[in-house]
Amino acid sequence: MQRYFIPAEHWNKDYVTIKGKDVHHISRVMRMEIGSSIVCIHPHDGPALTKIENITEESISCNIVEWLDEDRELPVDVTVAQSLGKGDKLELVVQKGTELGAARFIPYAADRSVAKWDHKKAKKKVERLQKISKEASEQSERSFIPEVTPLHSLKELMEIEGYDWCFFGYADEARQRSSTSLKTRLSKVKTGDKVLVVFGPEGGFSENEVQQFRASGFLSVRLGPRILRMETAPFYFLSSLSYQLEENEGD
Amino acid sequence: MQRYFIPAEHWNKDYVTIKGKDVHHISRVMRMEIGSSIVCIHPHDGPALTKIENITEESISCNIVEWLDEDRELPVDVTVAQSLGKGDKLELVVQKGTELGAARFIPYAADRSVAKWDHKKAKKKVERLQKISKEASEQSERSFIPEVTPLHSLKELMEIEGYDWCFFGYADEARQRSSTSLKTRLSKVKTGDKVLVVFGPEGGFSENEVQQFRASGFLSVRLGPRILRMETAPFYFLSSLSYQLEENEGD
């Protein structure tokens, strides 16, 4: 069933009003009519099954039939901080990271980040990433759209507060068999925890950055014994976290 | 350290001879000289640390210093069968799947595959995918290059033999909470097992295909509760398998 994320101010007790681009999509692209069912998603309350009651050029109103209890969200709140990368790597991270359940993305500039964003470029890039995150949320049937924050400095990342767990992906750990396994890290993460995980640029973190992470209380994470590209590392992390928390029943 | 995959016929007891494009890369691009160390990788025996002994226009000979025991390969042999997809989706699957440890890729045409390959196109596409797999193997420090097979039909896939486990990724399982968890499936997979996993096209498998899989003894796998795009599904599967088998020590 088609799904649309509707801003909080367009919801009432029994009905929801759809405006803007979604109106065109529902009436022209999908050619839906009065009586058709769609899922409307409230930014805080999640998805509701609704039925179209009225269609005009500017708006569509829908009756709320029932609130859905879908349970599509990772049981922990994960923020992926990803260094700027070449080409469309960040777009891939936001698209796939949204499918894999991330709650938030923070783009940041690392010492070795090849790509640079000036102020004007940063605003446009974040808008584009936010659009990708919305589309991926609809496609993957998420109940919430992950936020893409403005560009951060590494210093801002190190000083961030309010997280239960702060991790950084460290490629050199893949080369060491003796380092702490990812299972050891993730098995301590509990439902409701807030997790921040920082991934480095193409050339990895500088030694200085690794020292700063450790000094700021960040724990390094291994992601298997192979050397992953910068954009592959968050896929491994998020998939493993989902496996650990959402696919872990039985033996 | 730079890594090069060298065909079996170029190896002798104590030294290895490098020919073709790698000669240019080593002497011109990397500007390496006699005495430089590189890792040469034998297709069956894996990686060896070597030292350059002689450089000509056509070939480079290297002394074998020691065979390396790197342990970079997934302890199970995983074949990813991926349906043809739009654009460069298959290239992404082969690149990331190689980083994540797959042993083999089989492209195949599903009922709902939008993309079609004719005979001529198929040959070129497979060559291109094989090149991507080689590059990703070098980058991720694999000991072996995953093979990309010629295009298969679904019927050929169903009749394939020699696997301990045959799975298919089934998006509808994500919508059912009661279905068997991925952990239940993967915890039965043992070191040395051969695993085949089949992923569907953009629109998912047809009902007919699902019935055929079940009739042929394939087990369905869940990949978390969100609906993943066709190219994201193998990342989740391979990451979880690596997490289960390679990152599972401790608690």
TrEMBL record, chains A, B:
Specifically methylates the N3 position of the uracil ring of uridine 1498 (m3U1498) in 16S rRNA. Acts on the fully assembled 30S ribosomal subunit. The keyword NAD does not apply. Residues 18-64 form the Ribosomal RNA small subunit methyltransferase E PUA-like domain. Transmembrane segments: none annotated. InterPro entries: Alpha/beta_knot_MTases, PUA-like_sf, RsmE, RsmE_MTase_dom, RsmE_PUA-like, tRNA_m1G_MTases_N. The keyword Cytoplasm applies. Its main location: cytoplasm. Residues 73-241 form the Ribosomal RNA small subunit methyltransferase E methyltransferase domain. It catalyses: uridine(1498) in 16S rRNA + S-adenosyl-L-methionine = N(3)-methyluridine(1498) in 16S rRNA + S-adenosyl-L-homocysteine + H(+). GO terms for molecular function: rRNA (uridine-N3-)-methyltransferase activity. Its EC number is 2.1.1.193. GO terms for cellular component: cytoplasm. It comes from Halobacillus salinus. GO terms for biological process: rRNA base methylation. Keywords: Cytoplasm, Methyltransferase, rRNA processing, S-adenosyl-L-methionine, Transferase. This is Ribosomal RNA small subunit methyltransferase E. Belongs to the RNA methyltransferase RsmE family.
